[in-house]
Write a structure and sequence with these properties.
Blueprint lengths: L1 H19 L1 H4 L2 H13 L2 H12 L5 H22 L11 H6 L2 H10 L7 H6 L4 H12 L5 H15 L6 H6 L4 H16 L6
Helix pairs in contact: 1-3, 1-4, 1-7, 4-5
Length: 197
């Protein structure tokens, strides 16, 4: 999870650099390429997953809701920064376009000091000692055996669950309505204008 987030941040910094240099290069295509790279990044789902996995159970819901709050706050800051009096002027708009690289840079610098998520270490890597060490680093010293037992139960449950490929998921009739809802919600988010804002 952590390595994927870090690679994703590198992608965002490259995208920000491309968009920031578009005026110097006199190339609107660079803006399109940079926006496309921002669009294919996996920031939101990865961030939710990582934050949810490193949070203690009693704070998990709160931690996941704060990421939505900061996502919305970022959009509001972008909207305010885009005003003509701030970075929306003819000379400063490349800085506005490149500003998406600032949070990515902050996360890229700070993320190495955080451990990998405990469920990932235990369920996918089978590293029980690494999981305990990550839990102590994240949640402090104390009795965390109940959380480790929960992760082990989840791992046992996952063994009996068949993991479907994307094609199998699309063909499975039991998941058809859930897929329709996800597609409709995702499409309406794209069409509501929030990305343009």
């Amino acid at each position: 999870r952590k390595k994927c987030l870090m690679c994703n941040n590198v992608l965002m910094i490259v995208a920000a650099s491309i968009m920031g240099c578009s005026k110097i290069s006199q190339s609107f295509e660079m803006i399109l390429i940079g926006r496309f790279m921002c669009g294919v990044s996996l920031c939101v789902p990865l961030h939710h997953q990582y934050v949810g996995e490193i949070s203690p159970r009693k704070l998990r819901g709160f931690a996941n809701s704060t990421s939505s709050f900061f996502w919305t706050l970022g959009k509001a800051v972008g909207q305010i920064s885009g005003q003509r009096e701030l970075l929306g002027s003819q000379s400063l708009w490349p800085m506005l376009m490149a500003s998406c690289g600032v949070p990515a840079l902050v996360q890229l610098v700070t993320l190495p000091f955080f451990p990998e998520s405990p469920p990932y270490l235990l369920m996918h890597k089978g590293d029980q000692e690494g999981c305990k060490k990550a839990i102590r680093q994240l949640w402090g010293e104390g009795q965390h055996q109940a959380e480790i037992d929960d992760i082990m139960k989840e791992k046992a449950t996952m063994k009996n669950t068949k993991i479907l490929s994307v094609l199998e998921l699309v063909k499975e009739p039991a998941f058809r309505w859930q897929l329709y809802m996800i597609v409709i919600l995702t499409a309406t988010i794209q069409l509501c204008g929030i990305n343009a804002v």
